[in-house]
Amino acid sequence: MAAASVVPVAYQTSLPTVPDWLNKGDNTWQMISAALVAMQGMPGLVILYAGLVKKKWALNSAFMALYAFAAVMPCWVLWAYKMSFGHRLLPFWGKAGLAVSQDFLIPRATLPSTRYVNGDFIAQAASPLYPMATMVFFQFAFAAVTVILLAGSVLGRMSIKAWMAFVPLWITFSYSIGAFSIWGGGFLFQWGIMDYSGGYVVHLASGAAGFTAAYWVGPRLQVDREQFPPNNLLLALAGAGILWMGWTGFNGGDPFAANVDSSLAVLNTHICATTSLLVWTFWDTFFFKKPSAIGAIQGMITGLVCITPGAGLVQGWAALIMGIASGSVPWYTMMCLSKKLPFLQKIDDTLGVFHTHAVAGTLGGALTGLFAHPDLSALFIVVPNSRGAFYGGRGGVQFLKQLVGASFIIGWNVIVTSIILLVISKFIPLRMSEEELIIGDDAAHGEEAYALAGQGAREKSTYNNMQLQNASGFEL
């Protein structure tokens, strides 16, 4: 029998103790949720964008998403986290500060815990039972996904250098403002706006900002607008699947605990997503006589977006109704209204982020104002008499508040996104050069997504470069 190992006493005493406040189950679930949300961006949206765009833009689109995911992190821990969830500077603006020090990250996480109206206490938020480091990572994933979603509006023509400058500026002056105002203790939080997991902070913000950015950057080449077939729909479906399953953490992690409300939020999320996908597919089949894989992806996304502001606040039957609405209203705005209104035709929103995120996010926030159940609202954040209009009382006021909250997010993102892009344009062109627009990935990056030689597999410039490399004796 092997002798039992003996741990030196000195080493035993140096082992860190588990603090009394730490709930290992909650911490584990929150870290898993954070990882699931992060995977929505990398690799989920990276793969989705790479598959949905024209072949010559596959690498550029994936790289824009990859870069944004990485660029958000240093901004987040150096100043943006505390701008979003720190002390108040203005009613809509938090004070910037570092979120990298050990004395900040190791202690128990804190959140805005009280709301006061005219001096009267009206609410108390959840009190997380895990370190601040867990919260910082969880909220980073949301910020990163938001700006990647925005990118979907400007794929196929925005200068990569302009995009590299845009990401940190937008996270600082746009995302952090919405996050602080609604989640971090700002004036919309104090007012009682309901946004369970980012229907406004993430999706409405990315849709409004993306549509604005598409206006300032300008449209793709006319040939690209007319013919923009996905280069790999199976790849796109894989990315969409990661995005969908990742939403389990996106909504399930927002009670900040592994509790009853997180379970309800997860189930409602998938009820709404599946219903929306089926309804969108029905409309495609009914009007265009064929079900569409791209349409199914769009319906899936609109369902996920719509349920997000109310995932843990509504009952299952309400999630079904929200799925029917999210499979119908954005379908109509994308497939019908966008072809009738000159304003929507003029602005080239590459992947329809305005419809899938701005329209669906606004719809979800409004429906939350109708269907938020008072008992379920109390599970998430204790707001006496908080309810949707469907349940009477002051529910009608809540519905109006939801519309006001959406208006603020839209207005702020339109204005600030415009200012950021106009400033960047003074130093860096927002659009690629004409040559880059014609050639695509090879001109923008000197690389292509699919390195197979043969007719139609490479742009002419890359094929010529390959021949030169062969002639020079390089192994390819």
From TrEMBL:
Predominant localisation class: membrane
GO MF term (any one): ammonium channel activity
Entry keyword annotation includes Transmembrane: yes
Keywords linked to the UniProt accession: Ammonia transport, Membrane, Transmembrane, Transmembrane helix, Transport
A Pfam family this chain is assigned to: Ammonium_transp
Domain of life: Eukaryota
Spans traversing the lipid bilayer: 29-50, 62-81, 136-155, 167-194, 200-218, 230-250, 262-281, 293-311, 317-337, 358-383, 403-424
Domain Ammonium transporter AmtB-like residue range list: 29-450
Annotated membrane topology: Multi-pass membrane protein
Subcellular location(s) of the protein: Cell membrane
GO cellular component: plasma membrane
Similarity-based family: Belongs to the ammonia transporter channel (TC 1.A.11.2) family.
Name by which UniProt lists this protein: Ammonium transporter
Species in which this protein is naturally found: Vitis vinifera (Grape)
